[in-house]
Structures are given as structure tokens and as C-alpha cells.
Amino acid sequence: MKDRLAIGYIRSAHGTNGALRVHSFSGESEHFRKLERLTLRYRGIEREYEVEGVFGTHPTLLLKLKGVDTREAAQRLQGWEIWVSREKAAPCREGEYYIADLEGCEVYSRGEAGSVFHGTIVAVIEAPHAFLLEVALSGGGRAMIPFQDHFVGEVDILRRRIELKTPWILE
């Protein structure tokens, strides 16, 4: 499992003092209030910041970082992802998973002769009605699987394995 996770991104500047409007990937905001430091990432560039304050709640969550003191400085950070250590991220509830933990998992289904390997998850895409698991198929090509109970069975993050209930969806 990865040690660091993306927990949100900078949507825009807010006001004139360098405050940042933040989108929380989990839809929660309480874990932001406990942050003392964070990393911003954008196109391979990383910057470390000290957190001065967190205000509001999702969807209007505001973040103030030390050294970002003007609207212009805040605007330059628009689109940057917010990364923290795993223990600082929002905890997952039953049936929830971090996207970073799903990527790289192998996809199997149950066949008459045992488990059948279909491929590996290479990306997780947020769609309007469900997350989609993009699978690089073992025979070549790619397929999208809606991450819903109807299609996906057991998810075992420790074994890096996901069971597919309906293998026909890969066709």
C-alpha cells in the first residue's frame, strides 16, 4: 500500500489574503482540520507547506497555507493536488477504498477450474454514476468495470485482488 494519498485539490483562490478553496476527494472535511503540514503536487512538481488554518466545510472548504499570502499566489496553486501521509487521510468506512489501493490490483473471476485471471487495474475513473475500474486485460486491450456490487465481489486490498462477479462485462 502507498504511504501517501491525495485527499483533494485546490479549486481556486478565495478572497485576497491567499486563502484556497479546496475540493475534498472523500467529501469530508474533518481530517483537513488536523493537518499541520501537507504536500502540493502538480505535473511532477512537489511543494511542502505548513497549514495555518482550515475554515468551512465541504463543499466550501477553505485552506490557508503559510507563505501563500496574496490572491495571485493562491491562483498559481489552482489545480494542485493535496497529498498527505495515509494516517492523515479520511478513514475509509466499510466498503470504501482509497483509489491508490485499487490501482494495481489483479482482477479475477471464479471459473469451473478455479480462479481465472483477467487483468490488472491501471486506473480508477470517477464517472457520474459510479467509479470505473480501467483494466489492462491479460489478452491485450482494456475494459471498464463499474465499481458496483452488481459487478464486483470481494475486494482484498492486502492480497491486491478483486473478484469480478460478471466476467461477461469484459467482452
TrEMBL record:
Pfam family, one: PRC_RimM
Lipoprotein keyword on record: no
Keyword field: Chaperone, Cytoplasm, Ribosome biogenesis, rRNA processing
Keyword Transferase: no
Subunit annotation: Binds ribosomal protein uS19.
Family membership noted in the UniProt record: Belongs to the RimM family.
Function: An accessory protein needed during the final step in the assembly of 30S ribosomal subunit, possibly for assembly of the head region. Essential for efficient processing of 16S rRNA. May be needed both before and after RbfA during the maturation of 16S rRNA. It has affinity for free ribosomal 30S subunits but not for 70S ribosomes.
Record protein name field: Ribosome maturation factor RimM
Organism annotation: Winmispira thermophila (strain ATCC 700085 / DSM 6578 / Z-1203)
Lineage per the UniProt record: Bacteria, Pseudomonadati, Spirochaetota, Spirochaetia, Winmispirales
Gene name linked to the record: rimM
